[in-house]
Request: fold
Amino acid sequence: MDYDELRRTMVETQLVPRGIKDRRVLEAMLKVPRHLFVDESIRHRAYEDMALPIGEGQTISQPYMVALMTELLELKGDERVLEVGTGSGYQAAVLAELAREVYSMERIEALITRARERLRSLGYDNVHIICGDGTRGLPEKAPFDGIIITAGTPGVPEPLKAQLADGGTLVAPVGGRFSQQLVRLRKKGADFSEEYLTPCVFVPLIGEYGWKE
Ligand code: SAH
Reply:
């Protein structure tokens, strides 16, 4: 399998035609080896236009959704970013290419073990994976310039809004248990501006300020 070729085709056929424009995002998507973030048995499918299973009933998001959510954060390179929902660690790796420091929270230990191992072997030493309920955020490392929630939530958890820096951006799939809409919040002083973007489907965010088990 020529994975570099599959990755170039993914960028050219799935991302560029759908409007992903940020050069740095496209370069990160060209660089991060997505096939190393899924089980060996489905590696050959890693660059397909869909989400894929990563075990424990969870999924790695579709490449386009990863690129879109990343682009919406408008990262320049110096940010500290919080991700809620580490999963495979793939989105965290993409963020690590584009921001200074990435904190990523996950509630399932088995996924954390695998994600840490992958990120370490790929040399991403600016990603910190934390086990816990990401709906509470990570107050000891706040405020964050960017926050990305990669699981579907009934609403944006209040602690995460509080942990966003002034001028910061939060992207999340908000809505029902089985389908959501991508939302971008920007914090300006005590106010938040809200943009409702594309429909999407994510596994549920489970925790104190998300869905109950
Ligand atoms: N970003 C991931 C995909 C995430 S799938 C990737 O690139 O592969 C959503 C993940 O959110 C799942 O792994 C799920 O276990 C996790 N999750 C759900 N609720 C959570 C919570 N309250 N805190 C942290 N992680 C949570």
In short: The chain has a mean pLDDT of 98. Residues 58-61, 84-85, 87-88, 90-91, 105-108, 111, 133-135, 150-151, 203, 205-207, 210 surround S-adenosyl-L-homocysteine (CB under 6 Å).
